[in-house]
Amino acid sequence: MHSSPHHRDLYTVEQVRALDRRAIDDLGITGFELMNRAATAAFAALCRHWPEARRIVVFCGPGNNGGDGYLLASLAHGAGMAVEVIELSDAPRGDAALARDTWQRSEGTSRHWQHDAPLPQADVYVDALYGTGLNRAPEASAANLIQRINASAVPVLALDVPSGLNADTGECPGVAVRADLTVSFIAAKRGLYTGQAATKVGGLQIDTLGLPEILWQGMPTDATLLEAMHLPPRARDAHKGDCGHVLAVGGDRGTAGAIRLCGEAALRSGAGLVSIATRNENLIALNSARPELMAHGVHGPQELQPLLDRADVLAVGPGLGQGAWGHALWLTALDSGKPMVLDADGLNLLAREPHRFDGHVVLTPHPGEAARLLGTTIAQVQTDRFAAARALAQRYGAVAVLKGSGSLVAHPDGRLDVCIWGNPGMATGGMGDLLTGVIAALLAQGCSAWDAARMGVGLHARAGDLAAHHGERGLLASDLLEPLRALGNGFAHD
Questions:
Q1: Does the annotation place 432 within a ligand binding site?
Q2: Architecture of domain 240-488
Q3: What 8-state DSSP symbol labels residue 107?
Q4: How confident is the model at residue 92 (pLDDT cuts 50, 70, 90)?
Q5: What SUPFAM superfamilies does this protein's entry cite (predicted)?
Q6: Could you say which of 3.40.50.10260, 3.30.160.100, 1.20.1250.20, 3.40.50.150 is the CATH number of the domain covering 9-224?
Q7: 258 is in an annotated binding site
Q8: Exposure pattern of 43-54 as b/e (b: 16+ CB <10 Å)?
Q9: 168 assigned to a ligand binding site
Q10: Is 200 annotated as a binding residue?
Q11: 2 — pLDDT class (breaks 50, 70, 90)
């Protein structure tokens, strides 16, 4: 399980290897002892999670991950379970060879994997094929085995990382094991929290193997898990002028809903005043649906300027369009120099006409928008979401939120937080418009761009999880508004 004080710290594979090497070289803990500790931790997790399990099959690769598997098999055999080991290779290396010898001395059953052989029946399969070192697609024989494991109805425990998942990036270059539970060792690998990891990791437990605190001293983290945050209670004499004025710019013809969702999310997140700059034909609908929004029809920059002068923070892009009207308003908003959130067509226009900001701006792209902003492809963005998020922040001088499973929040100075909340029900229209409004409201209430983005992403995702208690399919963006209000006041817990 996550253990204090490193429960929010995320590391690259290279950093975890350095920690492992420190334990061996500086603390005198042998690699085989670390392997024993990992196997013990994983076996304990297996017994907790599947207390009725009596038959297990352990799939072992030739490296240290396979060594963990051999030792777990020995522990299970010693506990009276029926255990079978299926090996990818009969030539394990280093400490894994010692682990295999330990297993063989226990007189357990082993056989080499044959692609046409049926998988044994079991209560639990244990994936010990590949560890953190794999950054390519599994070879053909292993890929066939992984596909067979995934096609079975047997629950899977993955050791350290589901085989086939890149523990650095969250990408799967080929097939990967779909685990029900993953027990990862020493430190949390950043790739287990974003991208395709959500479909592979299952429940995640981190075990530091009883290593002393000194091991982590001087080792910087690569990223951090977001923590649940909300603003403190308001002063008893607060008035609306103390809580900021957000101006949301967008809503071209046919997209009034986008700017309404943005504006309403800003209100529900605590902004004192929210104005809308939109097309004239949207005014009746906006005023009827949400009279608290101060909707204004604007034909161009001259009519937008007085609204800009009164606003503290801008939310630019929902339903804006990329035509002459939207482009003119976008340019005028950027020229104002005010803190802002850019989303949707605000980002598409930025990709066409790049602009570097001064750190008071938050960009909230999904992978497609991120690809346009970086001049690359969606596939390349998703191959390394950490690198893409940091590149966006550095290139544009803004805090960047790379949305998706395991959303990332990147600062231009390299800091990066990973969101652990959210669900597939949020993959629906309008969710991004809400996030824009939430972050803008937090900016208006005095948060820095970094804090507003981090808090806003967390509140938005947690609200999505609360709203999904009645089911993910059919979730509407507007279903998040009440949970957002409760979470923002610290009244709801997920």
A1: yes
A2: 3-Layer(aba) Sandwich (3.40)
A3: T
A4: confident
A5: Ribokinase-like, YjeF N-terminal domain-like
A6: 3.40.50.10260
A7: yes
A8: bebbbebbeebe
A9: no
A10: no
A11: very low
State yes or no: 417 annotated in a binding site. Answer: no
CA–CA separation, 36 and 338 (whole Å): 57
Predicted pLDDT at 494: 58
Confirm whether residue 132 is marked as ligand binding.
yes
> How many CB atoms are closer than 10 A to CB 133?
13
pLDDT score at 117: 87
Q: Is 403 annotated as a binding residue?
A: yes
Q: Which residues pair with 294 in a beta bridge?
A: 275
Q: Annotation-wise, does 127 bind a ligand?
A: yes
Backbone angles phi, psi at 326, to 5 degrees: -65, -40
Is 407 annotated in a binding site? The answer is yes
> Is 66 assigned to a binding site?
yes
- Beta-strand ranges (E) seen in 351-421 are 361-363, 399-402, 408-410, 416-418
Encoding tokens for residue 435?
Answer: 């996030």
What is the H or E stretch that residue 434 is in? helix 431-444
What residues does CATH 3.40.50.10260 cover in the chain? 9-224
Least reliable range by pLDDT among 3-7, 209-213, 481-485: 3-7
- Report how far residue 93's alpha carbon sits from residue 70's, in angstroms, rounded to the nearest whole number: 13
CATH 3.40.1190.20 segments of the chain: 240-488
* Residue 181 known to bind ligand: no
pLDDT band for 1, please (50, 70, 90 cuts). Answer: very low
Rg of the chain, C-alpha, whole Å: 26
Tell me if 67 is assigned to a ligand binding site.
yes
150 is in an annotated binding site: no
Strand partners, 314: 247, 340
The stretch 81-93 carries a mean pLDDT of 90
Find the DSSP H helices in 446-489: 449-467, 481-488
In the structure, what pLDDT confidence band is assigned to residue 5 with cuts at 50, 70 and 90? Answer: low
State how far the Cα of 113 lies from the Cα of 129, in Å rounded to an integer: 12
Q: Global pTM?
A: 0.95
pLDDT digit string (tens) for 338-360?
999 999 999 999 999 999 998 79
User: Each residue of 8-26: pLDDT tens digit?
Assistant: 999 999 999 999 999 999 9
Residue 144 annotated in ligand binding: no
* 451 labeled part of a ligand binding site: no
Phi, psi of 402 (to 5 degrees): -90, 105
Phi–psi pair at 366, nearest 5 degrees? -85, 175
Closest CA to 420 of 430, 408, 432: 408
